[in-house]
Write a structure and sequence with these properties.
globular, 7 helices, 12 strands, six-stranded mixed β-sheet, Rossmann fold, single chain, 268 residues, 2 domains, alpha/beta
């Protein structure tokens, strides 16, 4: 079941305000086991997470722990084997690869999302330009994908996700392929956009410092099968810098916990 949002952005369910943008309740997911006819491989095991309206939550864990699988379940791209997921409307999803259509301009990529949302044609260009301005790409409406840098492409992808008018933004390692300086700049931009829009964000990463810099809460998943190993509430005021002492100190603590999880499951 999904819920609707009021005009001022407060989620409602059956006329009553709800306390979550996403609710993941005892979710497990298994897939057919390779080389074992009829066998199943458990990827996620009994995951429960609530994301509050306007909250920024990061899913952190080693490669293969099921972070992206969980995000796909929340997005509705797959169904859990057990448990349930509810969201405040249909989530918007942003991937590591920008997934822009190269034959369209930056603006037309955004307009496509607006058209699919049902926005009338006369309104699309103006809305697309407003979204490009929000991600600080004013004047890029007519640029083709090949004319944009990697960071600019991800900004367009973010604007296209925002064009879906969702209250919940799902992000699957969107900055992993970028160089350190560009990633740092986009951390600032994402924090600003999140603050200005009041969106809820569920962000997947394996980069501990990225998780600490961005999130209000970090959820650490164990190695496969993914289970919630530990959570941290981040009390460091925004804006944060990747090199801030408080960010670095907490990153060391979380990294040590992640290493323990990897060793516990025999992964190197």
């Amino acid at each position: 079941m999904t819920t609707m949002a009021t005009a001022i952005g407060e989620p409602v369910e059956n006329g009553t305000a709800v306390a979550h943008a996403a609710r993941i309740e005892h979710v497990s997911k298994s897939f057919p086991a390779p080389g074992a006819p009829g066998g199943r491989q458990l990827v996620l095991d009994d995951i429960s997470i609530d994301v509050a309206p306007g909250e920024f939550v990061t899913l952190l864990g080693a490669s293969g722990c099921g972070k992206s699988t969980l995000l796909n379940l929340v997005a509705g791209l797959d169904r859990p084997s057990a448990g349930g997921i509810t969201t405040d409307g249909r989530p918007a999803l942003m991937f590591q690869e920008h997934a822009l259509f190269p034959w369209l301009t930056a603006g037309k990529n955004i307009e496509l999302a607006l058209r699919l949302r049902g926005v009338a044609k006369p309104e699309r260009r103006g809305t697309a330009e407003e979204l490009l301005e929000l991600v600080r790409l004013r004047g890029a409406y007519g640029k083709r994908v090949h004319e944009l840098s990697g960071g600019m492409r991800q900004r367009v992808a973010l604007a296209r996700a925002l064009a879906q008018d969702s209250r919940l933004l799902l992000m699957d390692e969107p900055f992993a392929a970028l160089d350190a300086i560009t990633r740092d700049v986009l951390h600032d931009e994402l924090t600003r956009v999140w603050t200005e829009t009041g969106l809820s964000v569920l962000f997947v990463t394996h980069n501990v410092r990225e998780a600490v810099r961005l999130a209000q809460r970090v959820v650490l998943l164990s190695s496969r099968p993914g289970r919630i190993a530990r959570e941290w509430t981040i009390g460091i005021p925004q804006p944060r810098r990747i090199e801030d002492t408080a960010v670095a100190d907490l990153s060391v603590e979380i990294t040590e916990e992640l290493r323990r999880e990897i060793r516990r499951h025999g992964r190197h």
